[in-house]
Amino acid sequence: MKKLSIMVSILFLAACSAETITDERAKPEANVVKVSEKAVQPVEAEEQEYIKISKDNAPKLWSDADVQLWKYVMDFSLSEELGYKQEITNWRKVEDEFDKSLSSPNQTWENPGKLLLAFMTDVEVSNYLGQEIWEVNTRIEFLDENNALGYIMSYGFFDDSTAGYDTKLKMKKENGYWYIESAEERDHCSRGIGEKSGFCL
Mean pLDDT in the chain? Predict the structure, then answer.
């Protein structure tokens, strides 16, 4: 009888313990932090401004040898607000003199690239880098196997009137060697072109 009483007591205590555990599991834990719905909302990216080139102009950067890339990425908003507009002068004959040997078929330059470099060295184009202009780049466009156009394109002038300057060399091959047939130049104007002068304002 005594053993039976002990067994009943053990079963009773076991049942109470199981009920307590079940109740505790059913209750939400006190130390669980609820995450606010606002906290999981995706953070919106800040609106930014980007340089944009239209679909009409983008192909010109690769297909047109005389296109200046900088004209599409510079900020001219201030000058436009003041009533100015960016313009490019017409091509005109190069005013400065250069070595006459560059314009004669003297069997010196085997390709137009070397001839273009010889011209740049003669007129000292690179002397102004970092002092009066920011950048100088060159391009060559072959018209056929005996004719080519060479472009020397300077941009970023430390000047509020002229933004850039281009030189175009018409080069010809004769007897396997190249020479300059003609040389022209033009300006990129930040404030427009004078009606009478035809030069940058």
Answer: 76
